[in-house]
Amino acid sequence: MSFKVPTVGVEEEYQLVDPQSGALIPNCKEVMRTIRRNGGSEEAHSEIQHELHLNQIEMASDVCSSLEEVRDALTQTRRMLIDAARSNESELASAGTNPLPIPADEALTPKDRYQAMTDRYQQIARDLFIFGCHVHVAMEDRELGIQVMNRCRRWLPILQAITANSPFWDGVDTGYASYRRELWAQWPMAGPPAHFDSLADYQSCVDDLVACGAIKDESFLYWDIRLPTRVPTIEFRAADVMTRVEETVGYVGMIRAIVMLAVSEEELGKPIAPIRPSVLSYAIWHAARYGMNDQLVDPESCEMVPASELLNRLMTALDPALKATGEARPVEAFANELIKSGTGADRQRRGGELSSVVASVVSETVPSAILA
């Protein structure tokens, strides 16, 4: 196999929380004003954005050519956001949900797109206090992108399991490793993408969705893997935002290698094993329910296997691509830590009272490079 190492980008959605109670607080406007007053986010190599609710704030990195650039962007951006949050009597927390009771006030971001979404989807939108991590990998050829998307679907369950970081919701332990996924799955255009025979088949699906009123345009597709309309990438959207910078760095490297493997297999004409949509949907639900603490479903073989075994299958498949990048170590370290200590959800459950859980998340959100 031959591999070309593509560029990548990462987006993280963060919580703004009260330093004492750990509850979400809607001061995104104030934090963004502080960032602008301090000269913006250019030095952090990222863009800072609003999200649906004002207790959320999002970063989108510049295009990165290496995992070291990803690490630098995350570290510098988190440093800037932490400083700005603390200047406005709040803290930054990186986890898929906030463990404490959800806010009584909606505090929606006053933006036409968000207002339209809330008007249409009502309670689903009002409850959407969730925080994700999205990874972009360069994909200039959309026809190739469709086939890469087809080939990557099989890994969605293990990707859901390893990034699980939202066990608590509205003051209770939900029993899920990623309850964020269950909240997000209510969205009509969420979930795994279908298998498409070609770009024309995909475009026909988009046209049908527009015609029936499901979406306004292609940008309103929110599948776990999608081809964005604004940038020439393939985007992976299913992950909870992870708490530690090194987790995100390892995950970005893993996604990049998955795409590289899929491109190489497509170029070699390797057949794609068929995956039933219902099997894939169940496998992803099962991964969100149990994380790395139970057996998982391999949707390609329909086997139930230990979570560590499914992760090992992924790492074995990715080994040639990871070696080609010259940056296998952060990905291997991420995988090894998952086997050793579990996911962010596991750490949260070991955190004690819910306010203490938030405090631990806040502490771990701070990049190790700036702890001193």
From TrEMBL:
<comment type="similarity">
    <text>Belongs to the glutamate--cysteine ligase type 2 family. YbdK subfamily.</text>
</comment>
<dbReference type="InterPro" id="IPR011793">
    <property type="entry name" value="YbdK"/>
</dbReference>
<dbReference type="GO" id="GO:0005524">
    <property type="term" value="F:ATP binding"/>
</dbReference>
<keyword id="KW-0067">ATP-binding</keyword>
<keyword id="KW-0436">Ligase</keyword>
<dbReference type="Pfam" id="PF04107">
    <property type="entry name" value="GCS2"/>
</dbReference>
<dbReference type="InterPro" id="IPR014746">
    <property type="entry name" value="Gln_synth/guanido_kin_cat_dom"/>
</dbReference>
<dbReference type="GO" id="GO:0042398">
    <property type="term" value="P:modified amino acid biosynthetic process"/>
</dbReference>
<protein>
    <recommendedName>
        <fullName>Putative glutamate--cysteine ligase 2</fullName>
        <ecNumber>6.3.2.2</ecNumber>
    </recommendedName>
</protein>
<keyword id="KW-0547">Nucleotide-binding</keyword>
<comment type="function">
    <text>ATP-dependent carboxylate-amine ligase which exhibits weak glutamate--cysteine ligase activity.</text>
</comment>
<dbReference type="InterPro" id="IPR050141">
    <property type="entry name" value="GCL_type2/YbdK_subfam"/>
</dbReference>
<dbReference type="InterPro" id="IPR006336">
    <property type="entry name" value="GCS2"/>
</dbReference>
<dbReference type="GO" id="GO:0004357">
    <property type="term" value="F:glutamate-cysteine ligase activity"/>
</dbReference>
